């Protein structure tokens, strides 16, 4: 029996959005993955590192699945539910989780790490990354690119100005990394297909990825959600496109 709009929305409102695990969306949404395989690349770098830092680790799921950790492994996270989740997941693996406000300075000394990683950081403090890297050390990050999932964003917020659509451009990341004294050794960008198969998936996604539609609540957008529900039932899915870029930057050896 087909579930109603109200049932799907109520379920998506009730489920926890702690951590960075999207398995609740299995069968309800799909997102094409970048060809480079960030977690695999991360694991390769971790295997060669002696001291590493994972910034904005979320619930620690990506780091925990990356393979063997170096002798010194630290992760930072700002959101208290994620700090608790990451601590429970990463401590048994030998990683220390530090609660950090994601504002400069990072709570570590100069040249503390030979590897710094971050998957989908909200903010990137390039000068701080350069400071905590040892000479020859590497920063590896997969980041959300410009206009990611904007078909969904603009459905709720309307057409966005060009400066908003261009935000998080990979060439801006290159510029900022180089300004901090880092050498960009790799920069790749891809546009990927995302599909939402029911309105519950949309509600869950917007509750979890809070910067997409800031201040999103079901009550505020109920009528737009209801219209989107009808569209998904008619067309089978709501299609959007995510953008991702991979950046690897090295601190020069003086």
Automatic annotation (TrEMBL):
A Pfam family it matches: Methyltransf_11
GO MF, one example: S-adenosylmethionine-dependent methyltransferase activity
Every Methyltransferase type domain range: 53-139
Keyword entries, A-Z: Methyltransferase, Transferase
Domain of life assignment: Bacteria
Entry's Gene Ontology BP terms: methylation
SUPFAM superfamilies: S-adenosyl-L-methionine-dependent methyltransferases
UniProt key word Methyltransferase: yes
Name by which UniProt lists this protein: Methyltransferase type 11
Protein species of origin: Streptomyces noursei
